[in-house]
Amino acid sequence: MKDLISLHDLTNEEVKDLLELGIKLKKEQKSGIEHHILKGKTLGMIFTKSSTRTRVSFEVGMTQLGGYPLFLSSNDIQLGRGETIYDTAKVLERFLDGIMIRTFDHQDVIDLAEYADIPVINALTDLLHPCQVLADLMTAYEHKGRLEGLKLAYIGDGNNMAHSLMYGCAKAGLDCAIATPDNYQCDSEVVANAKDDFKKSGKELIITNDPVEAIKNADVVYTDTWVSMGQEAEKAERQKIFMPYQVNGELFKHAADDAVFMHCLPAYRGYEVTEEVIDGPQSVIFDEAENRLHAQKAVMVTLMK
């Protein structure tokens, strides 16, 4: 495990180890135990996509680990303004101990990891969001006491969250159901990879257009915004198409009685989810958001220590 690009690249044991380490680091932090495991290390954080949770959680996490987080926006570096990814990677590896990147094109992360001789962490691309799913799995474990044998249902756009949730569920031993509208399905290559992962794990993957079929008896119900960054021009059309996929009280009744609700945030109440669900007693969205901090600390420790 040199980099974290995709959960598909990891073994089941590596995912388990990351989750266990995240839980351990969280307990230590809550108990006032300092864990300066990365003292003297510097993490470069490249953002071509802005974010609240990603920036704050990585900066705070690196600081808690005793290291130094260096924020690099697209206005601060030459990447994307003429300099090649190769040159950027070879320069940054001379200064830094690790690189975190949140960007649009997934190939940019792959190339950066190939050329840089230091760890690269995918903090989101248009294709995948592995750090978020590690936090999601950690949260599910905290609330359910296990992961093996649970069912997660994702309702909405076949986007980077749906992709990484499929990979994460297969690696952690959950069944997974994905419900998306026609023409908004998941990437075919990702689905093929996920099917291989589920075959190896012996768990079930359901791909459907029916949100009721997907959510039936689910232990974890998940959704995401219908309009991701860069899709603003499609907003009105998407809202109309996705309204039957809204996670509301009526749909939620089909999940298990003790199901929890998750959302990677930011959320748009009244669109992909109603207030009664996201602000209800079964919502764990803020535990989930907090766990970004601890899951990502586990990634940084594993890659950079």
Number of strands: 9
Strand order of the largest sheet: 7-6-5-8-9
Query: How would you characterize the largest beta sheet?
Result: 5 strands, parallel
Total of DSSP H or I helical runs spanning 4+ residues: 12
Strand content: 5-15%
Structural class: alpha/beta
Give the H and E element order: HEHEHEHEHEHEHEHEHHEHH
Supply database-style keywords:
alpha/beta; 4-stranded parallel sheet; 305 residues; 12 helices; single chain
Structure in words:
- By secondary structure, the protein is α/β, with parallel strands linked by helices.
- Helix content is 44%, strand content 14%.
- The protein contains twelve helices and nine strands.
- The chain has helices at 12-30, 53-64, 85-95, 106-115, 130-144, 160-172, 188-201, 211-215, 235-242, 249-252, 275-278, 285-304, and strands at residues 42-47, 68-73, 98-102, 120-124, 151-155, 175-179, 205-208, 220-223, 260-263.
- Strands 7-6-5-8-9 form a five-stranded parallel sheet. Strands 2-1-3-4 form a four-stranded parallel sheet, sandwiched between helices.
- Strand 3 (98-102), helix 4 (106-115) and strand 4 form a beta-alpha-beta unit.
- The longest helix has 20 residues, at 285-304.
- The protein is globular.
- The mean pLDDT is 96.
Give the topology:
Layout: H1 12-30, E1 42-47, H2 53-64, E2 68-73, H3 85-95, E3 98-102, H4 106-115, E4 120-124, H5 130-144, E5 151-155, H6 160-172, E6 175-179, H7 188-201, E7 205-208, H8 211-215, E8 220-223, H9 235-242, H10 249-252, E9 260-263, H11 275-278, H12 285-304
Parallel strand pairs: 1-2, 1-3, 3-4, 5-6, 5-8, 6-7, 8-9
Helix pairs in contact: 1-5, 1-6, 1-12, 2-12, 3-4, 5-6, 5-12, 6-7
